[in-house]
Amino acid sequence: MIVGVPKEIKTAEHRVALVPAGAESLVGDGHTVLVERGAGLGSGFADEAYAAAGASLVGGADEVWAKVEMIVKVKEPIEAEWPRMRRGQVIFTYFHFAASESLTRAVIGSGAIAIAYETVQLVTGELPLLTPMSEVAGRMAVQEGAKYLEKVFGGSGILLGGVPGVLPGEVLIIGGGVVGTNAAKMAAGLGARVTLLDVSLERLRYLADVLPANVDLLYSNRHNILEQLRQADLVIGAVLLPGAKAPHLVKRADLKLMKPGSVVVDVAVDQGGCIETIRPTTHEAPTYVVDGIIHYAVANMPGGVPRTSTLGLTNATFPYAKRLARLGWRQACKDDRALFLGLNIIDGKVVYPGVGEAFGLPVVDPQTLV
Ligand SMILES: NC(=O)c1ccc[n+]([C@@H]2O[C@H](COP(=O)([O-])OP(=O)(O)OC[C@H]3O[C@@H](n4cnc5c(N)ncnc54)[C@H](O)[C@@H]3O)[C@@H](O)[C@H]2O)c1
């Protein structure tokens, strides 16, 4: 198969969908890999590294899209890329169709086969191609929170780990899924006092077994949240209600309970956030202040650390890309239920119920098309 890797052109996107090690593996399997020049640069992978891995470097995106049977990407195709999509071409990337009717209609019109990272799903319910980005965001939340607690960034001037003779900082994490657990590990590793809240007792029991002793686990309810806010130096929002907006668990009036110069990092901002006063920010201007509390709400946190994010993402996506190349999309999806669930649009037909529901489009059973 001919596999293509265009350079990501969405604003501030520095990740790349295939690293040189992946290119080498595909070439070793007998495939041809076309990489647009400069595609890996933002993640620290030079063109020469792809060439040494056996990939062919190509000058422009048009040529990559025109020549290949499968495109591997990171972000959804943006408008400039829509005319490049072709009938029968497999596009394996994050699509988030429900967020954009125009993208959905463009892919339908193209006749391409859209396999979306975000809906690939294991029997356990886990979304294996979203997990690595939640891991990055959870860990980064503590790093960013620690930074904005520094005086020069407007924070209260607290070192999360404290020093001998001085108490450490208090970190409150609301939501103990992938983001929350990774944040807890990082904060605990720094020596902070960590309290993690979740509504799932099963999850809390599991976390009690795997998290260090300086993480206290507490049932999430309004009473406990208010009590914890009074002590917290850093609050991390990490709640997810699948398929719904995040609930506002911290109201504007609650901020008055917090110490001035404390920091809120609401990772759940991409689902509306769990802090009422949160609104999305960017890496260029990541924070703003409400009632003396610093708010950090970057909607694509992994974009701030593209090297780590690219490696984490491709570790998860590559085995699927390799199978798609070896078997073709039909057989690869027949063989693997998780990948089958990644099918969103096939040759102009919507096959993923969530996408059809979002825009009132008819949904075809993918079994009839593979
Ligand atoms: N900003 C970013 O760059 C970025 C990156 C990755 C993920 N995210 C977002 O972070 C959020 C969390 O993702 P995740 O992968 O950890 O999800 P997850 O499903 O693994 O975890 C969510 C957790 O929230 C818990 N929860 C639900 N209601 C709660 C409540 N009322 N109080 C406390 N806990 C509650 C659930 O029990 C679950 O354990 C999502 O909105 C995700 O989209 C953002």
Strand content: 15-25%
Radius of gyration from CA coordinates = 22 Å
Mass-distribution shape: globular
* Total beta strands: 15
- Order of strands side by side in the largest beta sheet? 3-2-1-4-5-6-14-15
Low-confidence stretches: none
Structural class: alpha/beta
Approximate helicity band: 25-40%
Main pleated-sheet profile? 8 strands, mixed
Write the layout of secondary structure elements.
Blueprint: E1 2-5, H1 20-28, E2 32-36, H2 47-52, E3 56-58, H3 61-67, E4 70-72, E5 90-93, H4 101-110, E6 113-116, H5 131-148, E7 170-174, H6 178-190, E8 193-198, H7 201-210, E9 215-219, H8 222-229, E10 234-237, E11 263-266, E12 287-290, E13 293-296, H9 306-335, H10 337-340, E14 343-346, E15 349-350, H11 353-359
Parallel strand pairs: 1-2, 1-4, 2-3, 4-5, 5-6, 7-8, 7-10, 8-9, 10-11, 11-13
Antiparallel strand pairs: 6-14, 12-13, 14-15
Helix pairs in contact: 5-6
